[in-house]
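User: Need the bound-state model for zinc ion:
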Amino acid sequence: MRIGFFGAAGEVTGSCTLVEVGGCRFLVDCGMFQGGREARSKNLNALKFGGDVRGIDCVLLTHAHIDHSGLLPMLSVLGYRGPVLATPATIDLLQVLLRDSAHIQEKESEWAVRHRRRRGGGTVGALPPLYTVAQAETALKLLRPAAYGVSLQVAKEVTVRFHDAGHILGSAWLEVTLGVAGRPRRLVFSGDIGMSGRPVLQDPEPAPADADLLLIESTYGDRLHRPLAETEDEIVAAFDRVRHTGGNLIIPAFAVGRTQEVIYILADLVRRRRLAPLKIYVDSPMATAATRITWEHPDLIDRDTHELIAWMRRTPGQVKLEFVADVEGSRALNQVRSGAVIISASGMCEAGRIKYHLRENLPRGECAILVTGFQAMGTLGRRLVDGARQVNIFGRPVAVRAAIHTVGGLSAHADQAGLLAWLRGFRHPPRNCFVVHGEAGASAAFASAIQEQLGWPAPRLPRLGEWFSL
Ligand SMILES: [Zn+2]
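Assistant: Bound-state model below.
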């Protein structure tokens, strides 16, 4: 067996692993590299496995996040026509996320062309989009549903089973069984593992007792998340502040996962009378779609959330949710001066309707911004968190007078303790363990924690493009 690492090795994006066993080649994830100056060139140079992509038998997709799925259209442009297995909820989310990703690629390319023209450089050498919406549509046709817990044959003597990873809706860790020469071998790919005990999603399914090969993510392998109770206190403090000052509360949030989690937490705080009854505007077409898709998969939602939804139906005056559909509605919301609670995307404030809400509300000292997620270097969200007194929005300077609250405890990823707890499901150390999907420091720290706290042999830390024969 050979395994090649083509992304998320020493970094958190671009997940893509090629496995060759017997006569079968399969890919686990096909993710886009994101962030940083080299992302574009890395994406253009990705998927160079040696040989023809048509020689790949199938693609297994752990979940819908673009850093795990975003290069599927490129794979299909290169000629891949085989099946892409994913859970039904992942397939639903990808209809929205992959189209949106292609749309962003097209827009950025148009912008680059215009930018060159303005500088008199003509359009020669302008950047074409990585892929177009039409190419994303073609890739979406390759998706085939794989329900949790069902064994599916993907090639002769190769079966796969998807298990709930509790990370985002439809996320999975994968169990691949190879029936090679009568002695089955088990390969486990963690994908991204979620936090146990968090609202909305089910907890991750426990790991199997043993494995010949394990790939484990390590996004937060070097740290612990703050408890949910602290996050709730921070949110209550932000609400108290705007109630006194009479402004609006603006909540940038990732459309998939975070928006639904924030809605849950706010409604739950009202139910527990820590917040007064409130109306929440969700102003993002993608967040609206992601919330609809979440509700269309009630079996993937945990009991706490079902109970909260039932309470909201019984007491309709307590929490009102309004999904803003059209641009006119969004503009009208821009004009509201006081008392509005608005959840909008994108989560790092780089695109989407959130930018309009920030432009209107940042200069007003009576308003507050509640930052609910990780903000990458170089993003507008990061500048706000870092305390900028002035930012640029749509090319114009905007003064920052609103209060910026950062809640630290929300994450779709398990922290070090959560990851170790999941690994304790293995009764024997896997024969080969690779730590992936983390910044170099986080992966190394997690590899040490695995040795020290679980007593396993030293896991391996693969480098981009590296092959291993096992
Ligand atoms: Zn993810």
